[in-house]
Amino acid sequence: MAVFLILFATSIFLIYVWFQYKFTYWSKKGVDGPKPVFLYGNIRDALRRKDHFFQPYCDSYIKFKHLPYVGMYSFYRPVLCVNDLDLAKRILIVDFEHFQSRGIYSGGPNDPLAENLFNISGKAWKQLRVKMSPTFTSGKLRTMYPFVESVASKALSYADLYYSKGKPIDFSEFYDRYAMEIIANVGFGVECNILTNPQSEFDCCAREYFEIKSLYWSIIRAFAFIAPDLFSKLRIRRISPKVENFFYGLVKETVSYRQKNNYKRNDFLQTLIDLMNGQIVNENGDIKRVHDFPFSMNSVAANAMLYMLAGYETSAKTGQFAAYQLALNPHIQTKVRDEIDRVLAKYDGQCTYEAQNEMVYLNMVLDETMRLYPALRAIFRRCNKPYKLPNSDVVIEEGTLVFVPIQEIHMDPELYPEPKKFDPERFAPEKKAKLHPCQWMPFGEGPRKCLGVRQGYIQSKLALIKILQKYELLIDERTSVPLKLKTSCLVWAAEGGVWLKLRELNNNNDK
Predict the structure, then answer these.
(1) pTM of the model
(2) Tally of CB atoms within 10 A around 496
């Protein structure tokens, strides 16, 4: 027993010494930063769920704002947190070739749903990005638009039902269901009626994917992020078999049906099927053959999941937080409604693709919402070849993670006076055009900027347009003001939901 205790104590001591050695990485390079803690580095409170996952990096921006960059640690792994906008521009845009990877697990044979455009890097990413870019042209979005508009009409019926019962609506739940129905419809080619059927298998499996409740899967996701190379070698599943089997099986079944029956539908899934068949089809039906570009059923399934990843939380969170701010700011809500009425009058009351494109002020509202509540609070990249920082002797080595704390940049009073104030005028087109390219980055920036930006605006806008035509939004007493935000989620989420009351516009009776 004594020998065992000595060996155990020696092992702990050696691990401690090893960590302390690792924690000298930045100081040896002359880079300042917060003091790391044994085992955790600088992310202890985040792992304990006392803080949001990206909070340590946001805190470093506040404390070390006078420095262009800060050295931090995710466990023993060095992370460079970038505070300077010009340096962020070099990393994300100008010198992108050094920072192509997001630094997360990119999937493999044991994880077919992970190998999508968001995760992969290098030559495979470049090829797929080029092939998928035509999916999000104005012409393609116009062909998919009727599906989104149809779901938005169902969303209005959902609101009508609650109003008729005199009940407030939890807009967090409402927008989650609305966005997920669009994902199912456009991304997977199926109608699930999630707005009226919360027990839909599609919705349940999707929520299990996004809302990780078990400790095991929380650790697995963190491990895949912190040590992607080791994770890949160990061939561990990153997604639960239940979720993976459901979505992979759904895609495979839908693809098989369309291929067998020569059935085509103007949705995102059809674009992926076309790629699998070696072709790119534009909005006019013109076909361009694709050569030497392998795109398997795994690729179709993985990139259908990408549509969910990119299109769900961003549009759902933006929509619900925009509704919250409109309820808090009646004068802004009135201005949005006036624009909606004015534009739709030009289109005989029809909310067409062209009509929603003309709603500039509503876009400004969404932009300001995403400034206050960016879906991801930080952009992360992984250095894929050594990079010497400008005007410095510091070299970022291959494999080093780089973080840009979007949230704190968006809340910097030197960049946005009165940053806590909701002011859509900050994003008037002429003002937005003058912003530093890394001053507002809810969709990322550079070559890896989200492809589906315009689709996201459409999804967030349409439900608001439908509801604001008929109802005034009012804060319900169940909604905390200011909002309390969950620390357990990777993206912004309201603790307790966003509860709003509806008041019908043609009578002023509060319900």
Answers:
(1) 0.91
(2) 13
Per-domain residue ranges of the chain: 2-114, 124-375+411-504
For helices 297-311 and 313-328, give the axis angle rounded to 10 degrees. Answer: 10
Taking the C-alpha atoms of residue 57 and residue 81, their distance in angstroms, rounded to an integer, is 7
Let me know if 167 is exposed, middle or buried by CB neighbors in 10 A (0-12, 13-18, 19+).
middle
User: Judging by DSSP bridges, how do beta strands 77-82 and 401-404 pair with one another?
Assistant: parallel
DSSP letters spanning 174-241 = HHHHHHHHHIIIIISS----TTT-TT-HHHHHHHHHHS--SHHHHHHHHHHHH-HHHHHHHT--SS-H
Residue 263 phi/psi, 5-degree rounding, is -100, 130
The DSSP letter of residue 483 is P
Amino acid at 436: H
What is the pairing mode between strands 499-504 and 379-382? unpaired
Pick the closest to residue 74 from 96, 100, 45, 50 (CA basis).
45
pLDDT in tens, 459-484: 999 999 999 999 999 999 999 998 88
The two tokens of residue 350 are 């029809």
CATH of domain 124-375+411-504: 1.10.630.10
Cβ contact 88:81 at 8 Å: no
